[in-house]
Amino acid sequence: MLLVLALISFYLGAHWGFLQDDIRSSVHSSSYIDEAYWLLSLSQVVIVVSFCTLPELVLRQISLFMAASKVITLVVTLLLVVVGGMYLLYMPGFGDLLVLTAALLLARLDLVRLKIWPPAWLGLIGFNVFILIFMHYGHAMHLELLNWPWFHFLAGGSASSV
User: Which of 17, 80, 148, 151 is buried most, with the most CB atoms less than 10 Å from its CB?
Assistant: First the structure.
């Protein structure tokens, strides 16, 4: 699941890079709106990672029963994310975060089941660094992806046009 999380993070970094290029081309050249968009996207990712890696700390006030078991905590968190995600799915841009959240929770569940989950704050820092590295790499590589024939095929163009 960590590989799936890395691929999703890479994809989101590249996708948001393409969106940032569209914003850059539609506004004045000296505007910082495109950089603000990238910072807003990264801050949303940090908030999602914080919520998903620290559910026993975030949700402790909601239910002591939920804090008693990591499995119950993960199930309730996943339920909240799905219900909240259904609402946010109608808002533009939040569908990507829902996919990232689901991948993050599944990776966290795998690590808990393997009994290699680190302490809460170390997990928070580790997942943030892991996801942000792959997002930054995807963002840095998004223009290079246009040179790959299979990317044109996946994006809906023909592979022979390159």
Answer: 17
Listed by start position, the domains of the chain span: 2-161
User: Phi first, then psi: what are they for 83, rounded to 5°?
Assistant: -65, -45
pLDDT value at residue 161: 41
Q: What digits encode the pLDDT tens for the residues 101-127?
A: 888 888 888 888 888 877 878 888 999
CA distances from 109 to 99, 123, 131 (A): 15, 12, 16
Q: Residue 15's closest CA among 135, 153, 147, 148?
A: 135
Closest CA to 103 of 49, 64, 155, 157: 49
Whole-structure pTM value: 0.72
- Alpha helices by DSSP H, 93-148: 94-113, 120-141
Cα torsion 141, 4, 128, 154: sign: positive
Dump pLDDT digits (tens) for 23-42. 878 877 667 777 888 888 88
Burial (0-12, 13-18, 19+ Cβ within 10 Å), 128? middle
What span, in angstroms and rounded, lies between the C-alpha atoms of 120 and 52?
11
Separation between Cα atoms, residue 110 and residue 25, nearest integer Å: 42
- The gap from C-alpha 20 to its chain's centroid, in whole angstroms, comes to 16
